[in-house]
Predict the 3D structure of the following.
Amino acid sequence: MFTEIEKEKFLKSYRMQKSNARTRKIPFLLTFEEWLTIWNDSGKLAQRGRGADKFCMCRVKDSGAYEIVNVFIGTGRENVRDGNLGKLDSEETKLKKSQAMRGIPHPWSVGEKNPMHRLEVKAKMSAKIGGANHYKQRGVNTPQGYFVTAKAASEALGIPKPTVEWRARYNKFGFSLPNLAIA
């Protein structure tokens, strides 16, 4: 199955993992044959190594011993993620992470990739939420009739918008805000 040179190489890797587990005070209950079978059956033995995209032997929920029923082969990225699930960062760690990321743009939001920076998106948003569509828009009653916005009344009557708003707010000269009572 394997040459003697390959077995020696794998034995060295096995001993290193066992030693690392002992240093981390994690029981390592796999024999060399069991360890090699797990790796060989996974089909990832050649891609074994350190790093996010290399494969490593992981423990289920990152707890318990290294034993046949408690291990699987996954990427380094998966192993780190699983080990951190449910853990809360201290305030000091949150602050350090925040400071490390300060000034670094997210790749998904840089320049033209950010939809909020494109002119056509800004124009659409402005049209959707501006003027008569604004969530605070209330309309204005004037002696000349009802207008959807103070700006529309201002343009139609030739009066500055702040004047229209002031007259409507204080019910002056026939201006008023519409009654918003819902029956």
Summary: The helical segments are 4-23, 32-42, 76-84, 91-101, 119-129, 150-157, 161-169. The first strand starts at residue 55 and ends at 59. The radius of gyration is 34 Å.
